[in-house]
Amino acid sequence: MSVVRLLVLGVTRRQQPTHGYAVRRELLSWRADTWTNVQPGSIYHAVKQLTQEGKLRTLGTEGGSRGPGRTLFELTPEGETEFFERLDTALTSVDMEELGAGIAFMDALPRDRVVAKLEEQRTRSEAVRRDLLAMIADYPGRHEPPHFPDLLELWSGVFANLTGWTSGVLDRLERGEYVLSDQKHPHTGP
C-alpha cells in the first residue's frame, strides 16, 4: 500500500480546498517524515499522480503574496472511495507505517468500524507472533549466525508489543475516547 497516497488524500480531505504546499506543511507539522518514509518530493508527486488519475480535482489557483499562485485541489468521489479503502487497509495492517497512517485518520470513520478494523489488526498481529514463535523449532542454531531463534524471538516480541498497543487503543475507544465521524465531526465515512 502507498502510505503517501493515504496521507495526501486524508490531509486534502481534511483541508479542502487546499494546495500541495499546505498538504506538505501539515504532514511536516505532524512530523510524518519521522514515522513514515514520506518525503516532500513524494507528497508533490502523489498530488500530481492523484490528479492525473481523477482522484483529486483542480479548482483554480489561490493568489500568493510572493511568486505564482498555488493550485487548489479537492477530492473527487473516486478520491473519497480510495481514501476509505486505503484507510480500512491501513487499520488492519501489521506494517507500522501503514497502521500509523490509519491511526492518523481513524476519526474519519465511525467508532464501530474503527473498533472492528483494529480488532482484525490485533488478531493478525497475534497470529504473526504465534507463527514466528512456532518457527523457532525449525532453526536450532541459536549460537551460530544469523542466530535465527533470537531473530524470531525479537520479531515475535515486536508483534506482542503491537498486539498490546492495539488492545490499549481499543480500550480507549470502548471508553469513548477520541472524537470519531459518528460524533460531531464534519467528515463522515461511507
UniProtKB/TrEMBL annotation:
InterPro entries: Metal_resp_DNA-bind_regulator (IPR052509), Tscrpt_reg_PadR_N (IPR005149), WH-like_DNA-bd_sf (IPR036388), WH_DNA-bd_sf (IPR036390). This is PadR family transcriptional regulator. It comes from Nocardia flavorosea. Residues 8-83 form the Transcription regulator PadR N-terminal domain. It comes from the Bacteria.
